[in-house]
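Fill in residues.
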């Protein structure tokens, strides 16, 4: 596996499918900052309401797939999923078919997001249950307080760089901020 993080502002993505799994993937992509298309030849009322103008009431054509960089497929038969995956691959578009490893060019990891901090866990599709356990462990280890801490860390780094402070001092200041906030192992938040 090659771990990468994609900038949703730089790529075009879509979900193809129907049902709960496809809708969950659409929501996840949108929540992560993407503006995905949703292709469904049989959308239910919830998909219609959620996808709005991004809904295409059909399967994607090869031309549609060519215009995309990444596609997630969920809630379709293995035959339909295989056809879409083959068309996507022919158009050099990365494809993931939910729970069908031979049709996956990539795997979507379990995600924990704390502001700008994005933590992921993946088993390469071997065990979603293990990835979920790892995600739950990360959620406990990195509480919501990391969101505010990252805002402070970014501001401190920006100030330090503007003042010509070197990487070692910037790192030391970041560690001090995290320690003061009680976000390092063994540290409790400072009251001053």
């Amino acid at each position: 596996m090659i771990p990468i993080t994609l900038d949703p502002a730089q790529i075009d993505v879509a979900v193809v499918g129907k049902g709960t799994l496809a809708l969950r993937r659409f929501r996840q992509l949108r929540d992560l900052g993407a503006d995905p298309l949703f292709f469904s030849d049989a959308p239910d009322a919830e998909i219609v309401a959620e996808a709005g103008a991004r809904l295409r009431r059909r399967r994607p054509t090869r031309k549609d797939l060519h215009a995309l960089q990444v596609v997630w497929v969920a809630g379709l038969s293995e035959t339909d999923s295989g056809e879409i995956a083959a068309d996507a691959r022919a158009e050099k578009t990365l494809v993931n078919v939910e729970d069908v490893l031979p049709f996956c060019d990539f795997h979507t990891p379990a995600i924990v997001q704390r502001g700008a901090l994005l933590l992921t866990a993946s088993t390469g599709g071997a065990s979603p249950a293990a990835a979920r356990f790892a995600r739950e462990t990360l959620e406990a280890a990195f509480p919501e307080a990391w969101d505010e801490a990252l805002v402070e860390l970014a501001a401190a780094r920006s100030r330090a760089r503007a003042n010509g402070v070197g990487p070692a001092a910037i790192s030391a200041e970041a560690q001090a901020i995290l320690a003061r906030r009680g976000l390092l192992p063994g540290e409790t938040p400072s009251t001053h």
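The chain has seven helices and seven strands.
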